[in-house]
Amino acid sequence: MTMCAIGIRAEVPSPPGFWQTLSDTTGKPEAIVEIFESGGKFHGRIVRLLDDEPGSVCTQCTGVRKGQPLVGMVVLTGLISDGDEYTGGEILDPDDGRTYRAKIKLMDGGDTLKVRGFLGLSIFGRTQIWLRSK
User: How much is the pTM?
Assistant: First the structure.
């Protein structure tokens, strides 16, 4: 005899929320990024810088982002659900002003986000771990 729970749903973690980014060099917290859904795609914007002075701008960015404030800047765009990952997006690295292809994956029950930026193939890139802000 098999027993099953009726009417009980396990909450499936999803990316929307606030995430603390960590420095690649120091491992210290750098910023808070809000991931939000719009038009069926996931995007992320910087809502707070943890180390920089207020008014920091993207000096390395090109085009319309050049000289724009980092707080409020959308740095993650266009991710769509693809099984247990979110793919097809782009991520801006404000440190070098370049935009990379991006994919993300929730880990640790949704408390950790593996963020991968890459050129062309995913093996040519770098991964950051973001922590969900509570």
Answer: 0.87
